[in-house]
Specification:
The chain has 180 residues and is mainly β. 3% of the residues lie in helices and 57% in strands. The protein has an eight-stranded antiparallel beta sheet, with no helix packed on it. Strands 2, 4, 5, 8 and 12 form a five-stranded antiparallel beta sheet that branches. A hairpin with a 2-residue loop joins strand 4 and strand 5.
């Protein structure tokens, strides 16, 4: 589908706007935070969301973890699963099939400046599990990380929480929603 082109002064119709397909839902910055909440963003309008995360903090320690939220409350039930691989000069794999109260997004590799992208599927559905894939790299290019995870039961979420198991986070994020 070609990207629509709009002219100055043109009246935009619903059909024009629906043809766009991908919408930037929000962005933000965070400074020296141990956790960041992004609330009221998952709706029935989209089935798939793409979160871009760029950390510039040199105080990176521990793992980056994700939890989903409903009406401003973080779900801490033991229903999260994940599997991650980090590639440096050797492969480091972390797999967790035992449900925990959060899913790991990045491993503690002792590097600074994570850049990662998470694709989140069905967070607002109450009939399908919420799952995600994640790919990232440290800003020096010395570590590449890939993984997947999710919430292993059907629960409708409208937000997400990103936390650090140690240290703090400083950076920016962007969230997009789209219908495949």
């Amino acid at each position: 589908m070609p990207v629509p082109v709009f002219s100055v002064g043109e009246v935009l119709t619903a059909a024009n706007m629906n043809a766009v397909g991908v919408w930037r839902l929000g962005s933000g910055t965070f400074t020296a935070q141990t956790g960041v909440n992004i609330d009221s963003v998952f709706t029935a309008d989209y089935d798939v969301y793409r979160l871009f995360w760029m950390e510039s903090d040199s105080n990176i320690a521990g793992e980056t973890r994700v939890q989903f939220r409903t009406s401003g409350t973080t779900n801490v039930n033991n229903n999260y699963i994940h599997q991650n691989n980090a590639f440096t000069t050797a492969l480091t794999a972390v797999r967790n099939t035992v449900a925990t109260n959060s899913s790991m997004v990045t491993q503690n590799v002792g590097a600074s400046g994570w850049l990662w992208e998470m694709v989140i599927y069905n967070p607002f559905s109450n009939t399908q599990n919420t799952i995600f894939t994640v790919n990232g790299n440290v800003d020096t290019g010395s570590v590449y990380m890939s993984g997947a995870g999710g919430f292993n039961t059907t629960t409708r979420f409208d937000g997400i929480r990103i936390t650090r198991s140690a240290g703090t986070m400083t950076g920016e994020s962007w969230l997009y929603g789209y219908q495949p």
